[in-house]
């Protein structure tokens, strides 16, 4: 088994709680370097996870900058989780240095920037893997439910409902990242979290969105520019559904229901994501999500494991391609600009 040498670009919450635990528990990876804008944040994670080499930019006095990291020929790939506005240029630099990339979503502030980034990637010589870290496309429950629906387990699908809500407190660690407090990109938390939801809808239903009519509001003034979105969605097949997100309410909910001619299937209890099938005759089947031995979410581990396998096989998994992330982002942007009118997703 080939062990790939990985550099981490970013030292935020998700790197600490998800990416690094996943990599540490994966025998296919060896994390050899970490970069952050500040030395202190990079050094803290280097000490916690025994990462030998630290790189940073701010007030750098020893020359260990990002450019020096990218000049290393012994690093195979980079896992990137940086602020949305910064990511596209860094991804281009990493790819140009000949290193594979797994980048957190959204990869850019808007569809236009994301499309340009993907075009840049596709213009490079074949062989480099650029994947987006959309863990919902790798969660075992979403994958299992998608297969049940594909195999006709609830009959002909005719409708769905997806609702996710939570209260973003002022002490929420994700809210307290500076680039989220004053987002210079469309949608704020609705974009940041909504791309996950769209990924789940597209995966489970096995098709893309045709059109949307949506409305948005801002109820919690510090969650600029919007914290609430409700929409009616029409899929390519004509299946219709509701899709809503709200980050201003005190009750956290997660419920995704797909209805068919033979019954309904409901995914709930996030983040464990068990599911329940109820037939039209009232028969109920329930399944709890599988337990997992690492501190990270199982879906994050799976997306990273797939990325490592793709590098080794030199063949990219369809679910991980950056074009998938662009589609997710396009759907959310369509919701944000609909303003009560039906808009075709293009």
UniProtKB/TrEMBL annotation:
<protein>
    <recommendedName>
        <fullName>Gfo/Idh/MocA-like oxidoreductase N-terminal domain-containing protein</fullName>
    </recommendedName>
</protein>
<dbReference type="InterPro" id="IPR000683">
    <property type="entry name" value="Gfo/Idh/MocA-like_OxRdtase_N"/>
</dbReference>
<dbReference type="InterPro" id="IPR055170">
    <property type="entry name" value="GFO_IDH_MocA-like_dom"/>
</dbReference>
<dbReference type="Pfam" id="PF01408">
    <property type="entry name" value="GFO_IDH_MocA"/>
</dbReference>
<feature type="domain" description="Gfo/Idh/MocA-like oxidoreductase N-terminal">
    <location>
        <begin position="4"/>
        <end position="122"/>
    </location>
</feature>
<dbReference type="GO" id="GO:0006740">
    <property type="term" value="P:NADPH regeneration"/>
</dbReference>
<feature type="domain" description="GFO/IDH/MocA-like oxidoreductase">
    <location>
        <begin position="142"/>
        <end position="266"/>
    </location>
</feature>
<dbReference type="GO" id="GO:0005737">
    <property type="term" value="C:cytoplasm"/>
</dbReference>
<dbReference type="GO" id="GO:0000166">
    <property type="term" value="F:nucleotide binding"/>
</dbReference>
<dbReference type="Pfam" id="PF22725">
    <property type="entry name" value="GFO_IDH_MocA_C3"/>
</dbReference>
<dbReference type="InterPro" id="IPR036291">
    <property type="entry name" value="NAD(P)-bd_dom_sf"/>
</dbReference>
<dbReference type="GO" id="GO:0016491">
    <property type="term" value="F:oxidoreductase activity"/>
</dbReference>
<comment type="similarity">
    <text>Belongs to the Gfo/Idh/MocA family.</text>
</comment>
